[in-house]
Amino acid sequence: MNTSIRNLLLLLIATAMWCTGCRDSAAGIDRLRVATTTSTRDSGLLDELIPGFERQFNCEVDIIAVGTGAALAYGERGEVDVVIVHAPKSEEDFVRNAHGIEHVPFMQNEFIFVGPKDDPAELSNLDLHDALNQIQKENIAFVSRGDDSGTHKRELQLWSESAVTPDHENYIETGQGMGNTLVIANQLQGYTFTDISTYLKFKQKLDLHPIKIDSQLLINRYSLITVNPEKTSKINGKLASALAEYLQQPETAEIIQNYQISGRRLFKPVFLDRADPADETDH
């Protein structure tokens, strides 16, 4: 799907959500519009979190799953009430420019590199700079989302901070979400950069394996930001603040803490005092 068609589809979805919100408001149904990252959607976690919120506040939540850049753009235009994203620098800019009000980091996991099981590029146990330099120098197939998502933003940060430019022939940008990017990397038997939750969700369909590369830059923090209600009267600021508070409740943190795929916990909540080393996601 090319960029123009993808953008048109996203615009149609946002317009439909806007109109739906108008109809439900007239009917007396409280509705919240949330633009979230594809990784939170693909992980399945929202299917565990959102129904409880809907029951507690007698409302309905519309989810639009896009990359972080697109989610923040929806917020800037006032087309959603809440964004859930994972790009700290962009989040800070969003709030500083008065697009958002409440900024609530609420969970984290990690980014990982994945590649063929035999690791033909011999990246395992290299430091980050050496691994990326090896990929570029040896023209190793590396599949990037290339979509201005939080994962793509972090990947570009890693290249930049390692002083390596990914300009080799086998650097491929998909312009798609994490799930599709993993599938393409698998077909090419190349390497890619992913959040661990989406990888675990798709793991059974892939012949790609985690590559051990240690760096503090691989911490992946997710935040909720309520959109500034001064943008438009359509913003449901009250319900947006309620979701921010809900994600900080101990009961919600327990759901996040205990959510698993294939016996692996995917996320660590920010608001649990308990820090069990066994709960950390690992490679």
Structure summarized in a few sentences:
The chain has helices spanning 3-26, 38-43, 45-57, 68-76, 88-96, 128-137, 150-161, 178-188, 196-202, 237-246, 250-258, and strands spanning 30-37, 59-66, 82-85, 100-115, 142-144, 171-173, 191-195, 209-211, 219-227, 260-261, 264-265, 268-269.
Average pLDDT metric: 89
Unreliable stretches, pLDDT < 50, 5 or more residues? 17-23, 274-283
Strand segment count: 12
The rounded Rg comes to: 19 Å
Q: Approximately how much beta-strand content do the residues carry?
A: 15-25%
List the helices and strands and how they pair.
Blueprint: H1 3-26, E1 30-37, H2 38-43, H3 45-57, E2 59-66, H4 68-76, E3 82-85, H5 88-96, E4 100-115, H6 128-137, E5 142-144, H7 150-161, E6 171-173, H8 178-188, E7 191-195, H9 196-202, E8 209-211, E9 219-227, H10 237-246, H11 250-258, E10 260-261, E11 264-265, E12 268-269
Structure notes:
It is a single chain. This protein is of the alpha/beta class and 283 residues long. The protein has two domains: 167 residues, 3-Layer(aba) Sandwich (D-Maltodextrin-Binding Protein, domain 2); 108 residues, D-Maltodextrin-Binding Protein, domain 2. The C terminus is likely disordered.
Please give a handful of descriptors for the protein shown.
23% strand, D-Maltodextrin-Binding Protein, domain 2, disordered C terminus, 2 domains, 283 residues, alpha/beta, two-stranded antiparallel sheet
